[in-house]
Amino acid sequence: MPCLNEARTLAGCVQKAQTFLNQEKISGEIIVADNGSTDGSRELAEQCGARVVRAETRGYGAALAAGINAAHGKYVIMGDSDQSYDFSALAPFVQKLRDGYDLVMGNRFLGGIAPGAMPPLHRYFGNPLLSAIGRLFFSCREASDFYCGLRGFRREAVQRLELQSRGMEFALEMLVKATMHGLRITEVPTTLSPDGRDRAPHLRRYRDAWRSLRLYLLLSPRWFFGIPGVLLLALGTLVSTLLLRGPMTIGGVTFDYHTLLYSTAAILLGYQSLLLFTFAKLMAVETGLHPPQTRLRFLAQRETLERFVISGVVLICAGVILGIAATRQWELVRFGALRPDFTIRLVICSVLLLLLGGQTLLAGFYFGLLNMAAERGERFLQLAGQLHHRSRE
Fold this sequence. Notes:
- The chain is α/β, with parallel strands linked by helices.
- It folds into 2 domains: 218 residues, Alpha-Beta Complex (Spore Coat Polysaccharide Biosynthesis Protein SpsA, Chain A), CATH 3.90.550.10; 172 residues.
- 59% of the residues lie in helices and 9% in strands.
- It is built from 13 helices and 9 strands.
- The strands form 3 sheets. A 4-stranded mixed beta sheet has the order 4-6-5-7. Strands 1-2-3 form a 3-stranded parallel beta sheet, sandwiched between helices. Strands 8-9 form a two-stranded antiparallel sheet.
- The model has no long low-confidence stretch (mean pLDDT 88).
């Protein structure tokens, strides 16, 4: 139970948890992860028979992480210490864990939300919308209530996820990473009651909504970089192809090289977004944010730098040739007035190819740097394996 000045409600939560352990004959412990309480919560928890763990770093996630790391049990059930969750009704969580699931989420919408327990804006808009976004971004079909604070999990499985968030995003990161790492996830109905606090909750509606969306986007480069990049590249290429031969009139509106300029800009931005997608994905894999399995692993190979350099040079040469062709058109009129509807198309395409070539060259060297980092990581793992083998001998 994470705790920050919860003296008003903490004793009731601990007593309900003790009742559950005794009724179900479960050998367990009750941990209160204190996050700097000044209202006597720590002393009260100890008097009620709970074990108090102090979380030195401030934050909801930091308190949970401290409690999880200090736990001795195979399974952990976490829940807020404000009496909004019923700790005497945890049997469905334990049963699912015993059935072999790694993460068991509570679902308040299936179990029942008491009047006044959740603001209408959260209940009918914020929570369903952000949960739907999470399900879409990470293909998480097993959970529908991403923000339920009552959940159970195998401690070892969650510790392997190496969760980093120290704020309210901790619970979201747990579910997202559990999905990405292929853990077995399910959900059970649970109830939500009005909290027993006599003060405002720690959550901040709009700030925390943005922090949730921010976490989703940072952990899903496919949706932040990849899909928008593909759409921009496809749309820009289609429009540019249609306008290269000359102006087009649709419904009485004529589109000319002005529109071509915007469409090539879309190509450039889409290409850059796709490069950023690959950079972000490989970086997430190398730093442990994402599982090591990825189809883009081949881009971190040693030969990638040379391939990108060659491709970049080819694009730059094509751009230079088109630039020469545009200059030739200028020369034919003795460097006087040009036919803009034709020459400007050559210039736009020349600039586009030059920029694409330059970006490809730079990307190649970045992939070369990632290759060096990957090789260093592999050597470190090999050395660690050798030392472990020697220590066992």
